[in-house]
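Long-time lurker, first post. I've been practising inverse folding by hand and with some scripts of my own, and I keep getting stuck on stretches where the structure tokens seem ambiguous. Below is the full token string for one chain I'm working on. Before anyone asks, I'm not after the true native sequence, just a reasonable design that respects the backbone. If someone could post their per-position residues I'd love to compare against what I wrote down in my notebook.
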């Protein structure tokens, strides 16, 4: 643990506690004490986990920031050049760049910032929930009730995999700004209820700006107006005479109705844009949609009743629903949610917070738990929606206790007992998860013990053994992964076996060659693409001496000819590009140039592919292609990729020399190195 920072966190929180202690312990301040106390507890619980490693796609998302640190990119290009989502997530990328600018670009400090954002989310949620509970009117002490709710959210074990998974800062920042945007909406709506026209600044300026910041942190932010609609129905439309003011109508018209209509039109006119990603997935649209009700119950269960073995980062082996009765829990899950919604509607007037909470939960999942071709299950997707679940649960408990125990003293004792038990259980579970997440070996040991059927986990273990050159152990884990992998991913497992032989400098036997050729019809899944790229990079770098590069190239040709993945799909042109680089490394420049040109066109002029195409075309003396490619590459000059800028200058100088007659044979001499990014 980086002890130089830990005392600072603890000392700061104790300083705040001491300042608060100096004030009077009043009914109003008790909520502040509760929240501050649990903020301190949360910080202490998370300290061990800050020493944990980078995980999964951390490296992929943080590589551009590392390039900035290394002087290969500008900060602006990192912030505005991200491609992890349709909106680029520049706010999140800016926060990573800020870490780097401060010299704190390591796992510990990145996770420390995540923890601070988590605490900030809890603080804003407390104030927002307090305001909502005041509108509700059924809570005796909204300040305290909201503080308890926010405290439960802060120490919930289910959020460890969000806070300590570095790139999920994107989900955290989106949640932070969503909460602020909803708070601005509620303030504006309350002002409008008192005096029409007095809340327009909150509704039409502040809330939309904060919504934009949320969406540019992660796309879930666009759901704020939908959540505002839920709050409007639950709290402000309990009686028909409460009509919308002009400012409210404009808010919902501009930011909810109009975007919803545009999104519906886009889905009808361009369904391929939204659904094309299923080509690389091991599940269908129907399977994903049918599985989500069951997954939502899992999210709810692990939030309210934490179960360590069922929580983690590997859920690629979650059993998908193939029909309403396959498995039978599918129809039960759907029926269960329908019943929950019906109860919330029935209790709308008596417990509006229950309807609001259930609505917030479903609205918060409307993007990532619907029809989009994303992986079905990730715990961090419940980070924001869990506020809704806890709000609904608080409303239900409040209603039951109020009705069941007229004696106020008994009610307080019961509430205190329930809250204390939850606090102890949550704290113990969260601390235990942080200990596990403090070390990569601990994470993998727990996953191997409780989740051995995860193909992703098994392939990651295999990769660890590959890097150590331990072929037998790597193949052992790959065979386990193969047992549980979908048919779509089995080509990827076979390529990984070839990669293991390559890493161990051991020849591939004929059986594996036959296996690879037998699976050449397989679609190019994300797993297959990733391992193929690692294999091709080793071949290109001359690190596969014991493996016949010709065999691997022949397999790549057959795969591209037989796969069902269209040529214009991301996976197809990436495989084609890497095959071209392998061919070039083996001296087959003509075929390499042909494949590179196909990948260049299919990728709609990807920069990295273009740089390679220029290089191989230059080596063949094809000046016309070089000039065409360079003209397109120049459009990206000056946009922050400093290596690309240097490559363009080198290419232009080479062409100028060629045109002026300074030739070596009939070829430009340009080394075949990578510049630019695919």
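-- Answer (accepted) --
I ran through it position by position. Result:
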């Amino acid at each position: 643990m980086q002890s130089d920072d830990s005392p600072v966190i603890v000392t700061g929180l104790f300083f705040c506690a001491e300042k608060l202690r100096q004030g009077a312990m009043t009914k109003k301040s008790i909520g502040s004490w509760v929240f501050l106390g649990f903020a301190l507890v949360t910080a202490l619980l998370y300290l061990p986990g800050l020493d944990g490693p980078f995980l999964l796609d951390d490296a992929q998302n943080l590589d551009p920031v590392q390039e900035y640190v290394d002087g290969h990119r500008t900060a602006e290009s990192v912030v505005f050049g991200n491609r992890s989502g349709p909106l680029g997530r520049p706010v999140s990328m800016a926060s990573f760049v800020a870490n780097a600018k401060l010299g704190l670009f390591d796992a510990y400090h990145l996770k420390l910032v995540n923890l601070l954002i988590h605490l900030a989310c809890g603080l804003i949620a407390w104030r927002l929930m307090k305001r909502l509970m005041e509108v509700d009117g059924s809570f005796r002490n909204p300040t305290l009730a909201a503080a308890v709710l926010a405290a439960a959210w802060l120490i919930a074990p289910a959020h460890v995999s969000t806070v300590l998974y570095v790139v999920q800062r994107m989900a955290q920042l989106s949640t932070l700004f969503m909460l602020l945007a909803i708070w601005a909406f509620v303030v504006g709506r309350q002002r409008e209820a008192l005096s029409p026209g007095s809340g327009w600044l909150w509704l039409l300026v502040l809330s939309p700006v904060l919504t934009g910041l949320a969406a540019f942190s992660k796309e879930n932010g666009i759901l704020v107006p939908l959540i505002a609609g839920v709050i409007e129905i639950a709290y402000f439309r309990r009686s028909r005479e409460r009509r919308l003011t002009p400012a409210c109508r404009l808010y919902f018209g501009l930011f909810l109705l109009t975007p919803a209509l545009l999104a519906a039109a886009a889905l009808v006119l361009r369904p391929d844009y939204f659904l094309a990603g299923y080509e690389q997935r091991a599940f269908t649209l129907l399977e994903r949609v049918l599985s989500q009700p069951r997954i939502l119950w899992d999210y709810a269960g692990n939030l309210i009743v934490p179960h360590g073995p069922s929580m983690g980062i590997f859920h690629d082996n979650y059993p998908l629903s193939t029909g309403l009765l396959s498995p039978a829990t599918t129809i039960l899950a759907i029926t269960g949610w329908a019943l929950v919604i019906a109860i919330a509607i029935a209790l709308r007037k008596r417990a509006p917070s229950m309807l609001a909470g259930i609505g917030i939960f479903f609205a918060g999942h409307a993007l990532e738990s619907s029809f989009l071709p994303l992986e079905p299950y990730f715990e961090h997707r419940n980070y924001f929606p869990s506020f809704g679940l806890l709000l609904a649960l608080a409303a239900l408990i409040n209603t039951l206790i109020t009705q069941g125990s007229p004696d106020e003293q008994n009610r307080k004792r019961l509430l205190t007992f329930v809250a204390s038990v939850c606090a102890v259980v949550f704290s113990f579970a969260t601390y235990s998860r942080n200990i596990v997440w403090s070390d990569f070996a601990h994470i993998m040991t727990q996953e191997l013990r409780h989740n051995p059927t995860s193909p992703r986990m098994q392939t990651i273990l295999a990769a660890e053994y590959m890097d150590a050159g331990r072929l037998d152990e790597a193949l052992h884990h790959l065979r386990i992964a193969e047992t549980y992998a979908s048919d779509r991913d089995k080509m990827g497992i076979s390529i990984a076996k070839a990669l293991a032989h390559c890493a161990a400098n051991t020849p591939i036997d004929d059986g594996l060659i036959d296996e690879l050729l037998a699976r050449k019809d397989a679609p190019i899944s994300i797993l297959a693409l990733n391992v193929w790229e690692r294999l091709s990079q080793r071949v290109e770098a001359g690190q596969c001496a014991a493996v016949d590069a010709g065999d691997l190239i022949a397999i790549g040709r057959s795969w591209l000819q037989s796969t069902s993945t269209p040529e214009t799909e991301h996976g197809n042109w990436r495989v084609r590009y890497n095959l071209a680089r392998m061919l070039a490394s083996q001296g087959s420049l003509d075929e390499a140039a042909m494949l590179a040109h196909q990948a260049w066109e299919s990728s709609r002029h990807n920069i990295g592919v273009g740089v390679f195409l220029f290089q191989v075309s230059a080596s063949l003396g094809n000046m016309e292609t070089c000039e065409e490619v360079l003209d397109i590459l120049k459009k990206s000059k000056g946009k922050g990729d400093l290596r690309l800028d240097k490559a363009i200058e080198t290419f232009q100088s080479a062409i100028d020399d060629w045109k002026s007659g300074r030739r070596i044979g009939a070829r430009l001499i340009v080394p075949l190195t990578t510049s630019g990014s695919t």
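A couple of notes from the structure itself: Residues 605-678 form one domain. Residues 107-136 form the longest helix (30 residues). Happy to go over any region you disagree with.
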